[in-house]
Design goal:
alpha+beta; four-stranded mixed beta sheet; 5 helices
Length: about 180
């Protein structure tokens, strides 16, 4: 009777031989009459194609979609500690949001104000509301109909970055522009 380690080795060798055999190229079959049967060609992958295969627009967001807004425009602006004043580096992103919203007048949005974890729940809810309102005011002052924009504050309840350090806190102090309706998902 064979021992278990010997059986395991034999099984491993057998699997290796099978794997190698499966990967070797096939030779034409001999019919026995001196003729060989050619291996079937797969025209789909030979050089018979008209043009090289390319990715095209796979993965590119459809114009006017939520993904278009997030990827090409940007849906979030950031704030300084205990502030709801829009930072100067946020102006280009908000201006791009204005242009996008003017291009797609059927879209409605919600500005979601957020805060980091420091401070009381009540304080952060109020700060998030002021942040959302400051972004809303900026968009309205540049021609977006106020009826298309809702605001809400999540305070510190919906962080986008986990952790209790300056980097996480800085990312969590934001206003997020969410598409509510009118755009393809």
């Amino acid at each position: 009777m064979m021992k278990i380690p010997t059986l395991v080795r034999l099984a491993a060798v057998g699997m290796a031989v099978t794997a190698i055999a499966a990967c070797t190229p096939r030779t034409p079959a001999d019919t026995g009459a001196g003729n060989t049967v050619p291996t079937p060609a797969n025209d789909q992958y030979t050089g018979n194609a008209v043009a090289p295969v390319s990715g095209g627009n796979l993965g590119a967001p459809a114009p006017g979609s939520e993904q278009d807004f997030v990827v090409n425009i940007g849906d979030r602006v950031y704030f300084d500690l205990d502030s709801y004043a829009i930072r100067s580096e946020a102006f280009p992103r908000l201006d791009a949001q204005v242009a996008w919203l003017q291009r797609y007048p059927g879209v409605t949005i919600r500005i979601e104000g957020n805060a980091d974890e420091r401070g009381t729940r009540e304080y952060n809810l109020a700060l998030g509301a002021r942040r959302a309102e400051s972004v809303r005011t900026y968009l309205v002052e540049r021609g977006i109909n106020a009826g298309r924009i809702d605001t809400i504050s999540y305070g510190k309840e919906r962080p986008i970055a986990a952790g209790s350090n300056e980097e996480s806190w800085a990312r969590n102090r934001n206003a997020h522009t969410a598409i509510v309706s009118g755009a393809a998902r």
